[in-house]
Amino acid sequence: MSNLATDDFGLWVQQLNDEVEEVSKSTGVEYVSYDDIDAFKLDIRTEQAMKHLKAIHSANDGNIAFCYQDFEKYFFDDTFSLSANKIKNMIYRGSLHISQSTFSGYRRLEQTAYSNSVIVIDVDFYNISGLNELPAMNIIELMKMDGLFEYPAPSYWISTGNGISLVFLLEQLPVRAKFFGGNINLRKLVIEKLNRRFMEYGSDFRTSDITRVNKIPGTYNYKTGNMVEILDYEYLDWNNLKRYNLRELAEELGIERITKKKKRNKSGRKVSNLFNMYTLNYYRAQDIKHILTTRVDVEGVREVGLFLYAIHHMNAFEDADRLEEDILLLNLSMAKPLQEKEVYKKILKHVKKGRRYKFKNETIINWLGIQEAEMDDLKTIISKDNRKNRQLKRERADRRNKNCLTSREQAKADNLNIISALLDEGYRQKDIVVETGLSKGTVSKYTKELRTL
DNA sequence: GTCAGCTCACTGTCTAGTCG
DNA sequence: CGACTAGACAGTGAGCTGAC
Fold it and tell me: Alpha-carbon distance A279 to A312, whole Å?
């Protein structure tokens, strides 16, 4: 577990490269390049981490995002600058997570996602009664017996310390939204299909995000303290791991081919919009749930709120049993719940058999009386103004560097630092003008500013 | 008179925001 | 999302003040 304080984070990332030499001395690990895993005897934790990294990020085509469980920030690295020492250093620091995709910049966004060659299905069997006491290996055996490892079988599987990650390697998949956005949608559909396959074992339905990060083998699970490790590691042939072609995989799983936008091609539109509708409905349901569970004064909106929740839940999952379970739970989570029979009579009865509505955000905002301040906690049910403000906020943040300064502010700060140092050395303002090339007015002004600090 | 430092009007660039 | 723009702000330089 990491013992770093959060405010040390930026400093630590900067120092990481410099520390490699020292770690090398203290651990006795020779410098091993990322490409040369088998040439040296590594400890099992580092070896597993490297094999996994190599499997999911074999090409040097972008930046991989890393993060620790106890830090909010991400840091980035490309495979050129990875080495065994560095990976060892990172995994021994704490509960490390790694992005499935690479990114063209230093932001972990769908828009900046560059390439991807893996699908990871998280199986949270600890949520399933009857399974939660079993060791991960037994779960794998049960899934095999159920025929769930028939095509497509996972390339390998990882015990995450409380659940299982099933790793399906893909042939290198360009995902840059601008050019290859279709791959992102197709990948989401495949993941949805695979999630359904492992549903009984507790598969996590939120795993289709291209920017998702996963625990890396060789580390310890932050919550349980258990080791994250590749299972059946010794039986795997790392030079011949199964690797799937996304389009073939989709076809085998019965997903209709996504056609390029044709004029009013109904079948094409139906499929390509499918996932967008799924996420929209899913996140709207989550937003409505948030409103209903956080409001103290919920009485005036609880019926309409539960109704809207039910509709979006059904649109997303098409699973009446799951809806029933979730909505009864949500009802009980409200400050003033409805009686259970009312939920059945007023909500479930209509939604299960009823038609599918499509609501505008404005309508939902009006019906639930959502205030601007409340929207800050919501993902999709937000006004146009709120959306615009979020965009401005992001752009404003983008203009600032790691010191939270704009380029101008940084330039001024640099000049102030230089002048401060020269003054300490006994320079006169006149000399500072010559030394820095700034005007004497500026030097004078800054000298005065420094005195008032 | 010389020097160090200060003031203020001004310039050009950058930021933040609007608009289509 | 790019073009556009108002306003903010960093920086300049002429001219001023006061100490010696």
Answer: 10
The structure's pTM equals: 0.50
Q: What nucleotides of chain B have any atom within 7 angstroms of a protein Cβ?
A: 3-9, 14-18
Task: Answer whether any strand C atom is within 7 A of the Cβ of A406.
Answer: no
pLDDT digits (tens, 9 = 90+) for A182-220: 677 778 778 888 888 888 788 876 667 777 888 899 888
Q: Does A82 or A64 have the greater pLDDT score?
A: A64
Dump strand ranges (E) for A40-181. Answer: 63-68, 75-77, 96-103, 113-123, 156-159, 164-174
* pLDDT one-digit tens code per residue, A1-11: 233 333 454 45
Q: Quote the tokens at residue A6.
A: 């959060």
> Distance (Å, rounded) from C-alpha A125 to C-alpha A137?
12
Q: Which nucleotides of C are covered by protein (CB under 7 A)?
A: 1, 9-15
Residues 415-444 of chain A with CB under 7 A from strand B are 428-430, 440-441, 444
- Residue predicted with more confidence, A25 or A447: A447
Task: Write down the H helix ranges in A29-120.
Answer: 44-56, 84-93
